[in-house]
Amino acid sequence: MGVRLTVKRRAEAGGAEKPQVVTLTEDTITIGRDDGCDVVLAQSAVSRNHARIVRDDTLFFVEDLGSSFGTLLNGSKLKKNEKQLLSNGDTIAIAQFDVVFDRIADVTESNAGNTMFVSRNLVKDVMKGLGTGGEQPYFRLMNGPREGQRIEMGDAQEYVFGRDDTADIVLNDDLVSRRHARVRRDWSGTHVEDLDSRNGIKVNKKRAKKVTLKDRDEVEIGGVKLLFLDPSEVRETPVLMPSESQEDEGTVSVAEEQKEPEPEPEPEPAPEAPADEPAPEEIASSEAGTEGDPSEQPAEGDPDNPSNTSEDPPLDDEPAGNGRLIDFSNKQTLIALGAVGLFVLIAIVLVVLVFVA
After folding, report:
1. Alpha-carbon distance 222 to 172, whole Å?
2. pLDDT value of position 248
3. d(C-alpha 169, C-alpha 180), whole Å
4. Which pLDDT value is given to residue 242?
5. Cα three-residue angle 43-44-50, rounded to 5 degrees
6. What is the DSSP string of 6-74?
7. Which of 117, 166, 187, 346 is the least buried, fewest Cβ under 10 Å from its Cβ?
8. Contact between residue 176 and residue 223 where contact means Cβ atoms under 8 Å apart
């Protein structure tokens, strides 16, 4: 599994430069001004080693490496040397650069065209995300000397967090009370509860007394931050990348919908230029010449050229002479025919009634 970073530089005087796309598969990706970084941002406000993205199983975290001007994640400033979980579409702002993060699926060029294989690979990727840290929910310590350690929560398990040695989970921090908070898991979920501590607890940066946790909730106990991860909850699907043969380097991977090109219309034939009208004297002379030249004027009644006959042929639907048919287009004719027909019908009815009677 790899990541796709879309790097955009904010223009000073309006407009926007073309984004650059970097696809990386390393477990640690460094960002900075130094040429040795995986993503080089050439600007004086960027530190030589400014930030890094770290992979932990199927999760990715961003960390500011003590830079001079800091790092923003979705508009919030990161604390130095403290990791934050990344999700698809998150924006890492460094100086005038915006770096958009996306987790991508493993699709190779040899099998990118196989839809069934791609679908299975995506499901496999999601199931790997569901299985992070085993089947049980767990807490990941995000700062301090124990950063990266996991505290797994089994069924019907309960832990007390505090500074005292009698606590189940000892947190050596001055802002942590002796018995600070209790975490309990039962059939309804995982719950965190403040034990009337001096500094209280926060869930997702909001002070709380008792909360039922969800996947990726961040819990603060004094100065210690813990990330709650529940593999039983469905997480985001990785972005599907096209194969290298289908995508050019330095272009955005989400291709626009390809539209079939419309057929080009056939060019219309150019109209023939009208011939100049001859003068009346020319017309008369041409007619005289045509009558006198039998080669230019076809003979009347020529069977090979019937269109040139001098008389129009009689119409097929109008016989000549006295055999003319009744003209049904005449109203008076139609009325007379209707009257005759009516009288004939009445006569027939009367004859039938006489015979019946």
Report:
1. 10
2. 39
3. 10
4. 53
5. 80
6. EEEEB-TTSSBPPPEEEEE--SEEEEESSTTSSEE---TTS-TT-EEEEEETTEEEEEE-S-SS--EET
7. 187
8. yes
pLDDT digits (tens, 9 = 90+) for 80-117: 888 999 999 999 999 999 999 999 876 544 444 454 44
DSSP helix/strand/coil, 157: coil
Contacts of 202 (CB under 8 A, 6+ apart): 208, 219, 220
As given in the structure block, the two tokens for residue 263 are 């057929």
Amino acid at 128: K
Dig out the tokens for 101 from the structure: 């993060």
Give per-residue burial for 262-297: e unless 16+ CB within 10 Å, then b: eeeeeeeeeeeeeeeeeeeeeeeeeeeeeeeeeeee
Average pLDDT, the chain: 76
In the block, which residue shows the tokens 């291709």? 255
Strand 28-32: give its sheet, edge to edge: 39-40, 28-32, 51-56, 59-64, 83-85
Tokens encoding 274: 């009208």
In sequence order, what are the residues at sequence separation of 6 or more whose Cβ sits closer than 8 angstroms to the Cβ of residue 303? none
Phi-psi region of 317 (alpha: psi -120 to 50; beta: other; left: phi over 0): alpha
C-alpha of 38 from chain center: 29
Q: Amino acid identity, residue 88? A: N
Side-chain-side CA neighbours of 130 within 13 Å: the count stands at 10
Give the span between the Cα atoms of 90 and 51, in whole angstroms: 15
For 92, the 3-state DSSP assignment is: strand
Taking only the tens place, the pLDDT of each residue in 16-61 is 678 899 899 999 999 999 999 999 999 999 999 999 999 988 899 9
Here the tokens at position 220 are: 């603060």
